[in-house]
Amino acid sequence: MANVLVVANETIGGRKLLEAVLARTKEGDARFFLVVPQNRPRHGRVIYDEAVRDAAQVRVDLARQVMAAEGVEVEGEVGDEDPFTAAMDAISLFRADEVIVSTFPASRSGWLRRDLVERIADASGLPVQHVVTDLQAEGLPFTVTLVVANQTAETEALRNVLKEKAAGEGQHLFIVVMPQSDGSGEAAGEARQRLGQTLASLRSEGLLCAGMIGDPDPHTAAMNALQAFHVDEVVISTFPPARSAWLRGDIIDRLSQATAVPVEHVMAQERAGAPS
Fold this sequence. Notes:
The protein is an alpha/beta fold. It has helices at residues 15-27, 49-69, 83-94, 110-113, 116-124, 135-138, 156-166, 185-204, 218-228, 245-248, 251-258; strands at residues 2-7, 30-37, 74-79, 98-103, 128-132, 143-148, 172-179, 208-214, 233-238, 263-267.
């Protein structure tokens, strides 16, 4: 059985990559492994390593879910931020026999500007298939909603909005970004725990979702997620204006002006004793 390594990042979920994997399954027995290099965010004055790794892990999780829906089991891991190092490490770890590298078209691909495909082939001696995925032209086979929420993540108002979207036409995918309250390890732990509870709740409703913690500033957290993922719309959940620091910071208007995708605001009902 051949070990096939897939190296991909922002093009995960694209039709061309999925078609390449499915075509390879028809050629004979193969086990698939995925490595996703980490992306350094362009937004924010501080880089939170956990948030960077989370963004890559979300892509791993989503790829595994999408492939599983097509009957293909994939093992995956987060790799080094340098895609060549990530690929070579994974080739050694998974004992790969062949490699599939997925990139954007040459006009948009930093990987191709660094001759990634040729470098992997030369250094490994393995056959390397190059798949070009143009998400701007092709889109994804599902609608992607970016959900930005923290204290209101498990409220009925937000859950109802997401369930309504999921009940619409076609497959729907939700990526939950949960900003930390501050940059401390304790805050990251609290955000991760709340994120886990939120994802479990959404999955119990049958929603396809994944999530990550993000920068303490919700605008920065959202912008970094928009950099990392192909998103069709954004949903931001807050408390009412009197209690919401996010609204006092004009998060809705700022994000609407910064992105071309629609931004929807969901306001949770105020709860007694809830933090702002």
